[in-house]
Amino acid sequence: MRNGDDLEGFDGEASSTSMISGASSPYQPTTEPVSQRRGLGGLRCDLDYLRGTFGRIKLAEVVLALIAFICIETIMECSPCEGLYFFEFVSCSALVVTGVLLLMFSLNLHTRIPQINWNLTDLVNTGLSTFFFFIASVVLAALNHKTGAEITAVIFGFLAMAAYAVNTYLAIKKWRMNSRQQSSRQTSDYIRARTESRDVDHRPEIQRLDA
Prior knowledge:
Number of helices: 8
Oligomer: single chain
Distance between the termini: 56 Å
């Protein structure tokens, strides 16, 4: 039978052995957060979004706005120039904002900023882009000088307007569907809560235990 000194020695040897084995083990514990180690490696391309309806429409909007902007930039002379400048501003703004939204959605960056309602932001962007592309294309068509660059810019302006209009329609449809699902979910939760409370009221043994 071991006495206290033997047990102390045994515990000391065990602790020192565990310390040595822990120091030599390649699997060392770390206090570094996982998110810091991931860095840019946490970004991933959402191919499902790019292959989906909204992703394809976003790509089409970016391409059409880019072509319209390039066409308007190739025009060297204008008189009057107000319509050209307005079309240039609309196509450039739509290209930048839509490109940023496409990047946010395709890389899932919008999930890191949940404080912003990204669906509503996208809906506002597509609605405003539809309206302003329509106005800019009509004004440019009325004031152009029948040059090839102006006609091409007008054509792609109307095509971009059509793409944004389709996106707006689908976004409104999706928003209404999500609102209905959320409303029905809240209603079912309320009914379930009322049912559970009624079950408790009709079980006197639970009331006695609570008392």
